[in-house]
Design brief:
single chain; alpha+beta; Hypothetical protein YwqG fold; eleven-stranded antiparallel beta sheet; two-stranded antiparallel ribbon; 7 helices; 15 strands; globular
Length: about 280
């Protein structure tokens, strides 16, 4: 189904529950994204996968934090995802390699754990996103002390994502005259209560691993940005849940990366930052 067709069906679904005017304003918050699930033979979205070796252009240095090598966690093949993303990022962006300081998995080097203890998990330096043109990228062996995870290729199922109910994005959503003071205090929860059968909506992303779209936060929040920057000036890139080989946080956690929207549209990923949700 084409993005426009899915979005039209989504508006109809929401209009039945919110009314046409509020539904139109709410659906305007929707962002195209992809549910990422394990791929069978021939199903993978290009080179999109969890783990494996990095795909970098020759001469690209392996990213490090205070001299300690980061670990590759995932790759998104934006050439395979581009038809659903429209003009969100430049044509030919290619492969996005997602790195982070692994201090929690069974593979992590003890020195990484000590280094991570000095910093909060969303310091810009502990994560990196490096783009590589598909025609030039080559598999790159990780350096010593960098964790290497078994590759799991991804199917990328397209749809539309919405902000977490507690996200600050809802602060600008006009709810209409029917909403009371409590609804205006918690607009995201007000909308969620009205949207019955929400999991059955057109374009639902039924996965804990998501590319682009909006981030989900099990703890109920929005991304915490360094220096108090408005998170709605950023665009979500990847949500990665904990799995057997890789783990984030104490009891658990989901990893996210985001980047300023204007940088994304320019194809500049040097300003991408990690925004983890740890519990």
């Amino acid at each position: 189904m084409a993005p426009e067709t899915t979005l039209s069906a989504l508006r109809e679904f929401c209009a039945e529950r919110l009314g046409a005017e509020l539904a139109a304003r709410f659906v305007a918050l929707a962002r195209p994204g992809f549910a990422l699930t394990a791929a069978g033979p021939g199903e993978a979205a290009g080179h999109s996968r969890f783990g494996g070796r990095a795909l970098l252009e020759p001469g690209t240095p392996w990213p490090a934090f205070e001299g300690f090598p980061l670990s590759l966690l995932a790759i998104l093949d934006t050439d395979a995802l581009a038809p659903w993303l429209g003009d969100l990022l430049p044509a030919g962006t290619g492969l996005l390699n997602f790195f982070y300081l692994d201090s929690d998995s069974e593979q992590c080097d003890p020195a990484a754990f000590k280094l991570a203890a000095k910093f909060f998990g969303n310091e810009p330096q502990v994560g990196r996103v490096i783009a590589a043109r598909s025609a030039h990228a080559v598999e790159t062996t990780p350096p010593a002390r960098s964790s290497a995870f078994a590759p799991v290729s991804w199917v990328a199922s397209p749809g539309f994502a919405f902000p977490d109910p507690w996200d600050r994005a809802y602060d600008t959503l006009e709810l209409g005259p029917e909403a009371d003071d409590m609804a205006r205090l918690m607009p995201g929860m007000y909308i969620e209560d009205l949207l019955t059968e929400w999991s059955q909506r057109p374009g639902a992303l039924g996965s804990e691993d998501i590319a682009f779209g909006w981030p989900e936060f099990p703890t109920g929040s929005s991304p915490w940005m360094p220096d108090g920057e408005d998170p709605n000036l950023h665009h979500h890139l990847l949500q990665l849940s904990s799995r057997n080989e890789w783990h984030l946080g104490g009891d658990g956690g989901w990893m996210h990366w985001s980047t300023p929207t204007e940088a994304l549209r320019a194809g500049d990923f040097s300003r991408a930052i990690p925004t983890p949700d740890i519990w």
